[in-house]
Protein 1
Amino acid sequence: MVPFDYFRYTQFGLKLLGEKNGFKIVSIEPHGGIFINIEFMMWEALSKFFPTENPVAGYVVRFIILLPLKILSGTIFNILDVLDRKKEFTLNYNVVYKKI
């Protein structure tokens, strides 16, 4: 995310970087699939419509309106994410390396 998103690695790039530096991949696990990614992008877009210059109004909007919607959408998109078996379009990866 802006301004600190300098690189985006795929599972293949993470594997190659590890192997080139003397590591063996123990596991690579995606952080969700396409539906989790869609939910993330949806909430990023929605955040642009709810400015937070006024702190009190920002808290009211976030906790009274957005929090219940976030819980509902999170539940729905997590259920749908089960349908994405490959999880190739993910937010990120957890990688465990082992030094060779």
Protein 2
Amino acid sequence: MEDINDVTRLIIGAAIEVHRVLGPGLREQTYVEALAIEFTDRDLTFERQVSVPVQYKDHWVGEYRLDFLVQEKVVVEVKSVDRYDPVFEAQVLAYLRASGRRVGLLINFNTALVRQGIKRLIL
């Protein structure tokens, strides 16, 4: 399962299952917990709340917290918001740059169909 497309497909499948069972409108943390269960059930390795340092002109100035890093390849950011904001995409792109990863998924569970709330971002 080294192909990144296979990994993102499994992640999206997990998100669809979580949304099918729980539906929209819950707190973000609820979806994070449910996704962790689905990732485990699908034999996906993952880390939660991964700390990624932020550098500015060779100085460490802060850190990002990734919701998930899946298979050491895909950054997953979970949202549960009524209003989509382009800054969410910028956030994931910043996470990708800081972590050295190329692919990220932004998943907003507060939609009628979760597929409408999934955005794949590539650096």
Protein 3
Amino acid sequence: MELLFVYGTLLRGEEREGLVSQFEARAAITLGKLWRVPAGYPALQFSMEGKPIAGEVLTISGSPVLSVLDLYEGVGEGLYDRIRLPIQTDKGTEQAWAYVMSPVQLRRAGCIPLKVNDWRHYRRGR
């Protein structure tokens, strides 16, 4: 089993939750900054000096699922990187995979910084 931190379209109630709805989800946070990709989905820039970013941690069934999600998230094309990062949950600090963008990837994709720390708040406010 693997842990995956999600913070955007894969969250419960968001447009792509069906891709991961079979997995258990718990509330979680990590540190960083949220950005909006011009195509309308979020990007996370992870930073230990960042603000708390709200999301969920999914308990997934391992490598085959991550391989499919890597394709969906454009890891092979350099859109996102999948990294392990620290998250906070009701169980304390845990390590989870997450799809993030580096400053170079954010610039290349034309991302816009968001003032919110929860993608769901951004989506509801539009």
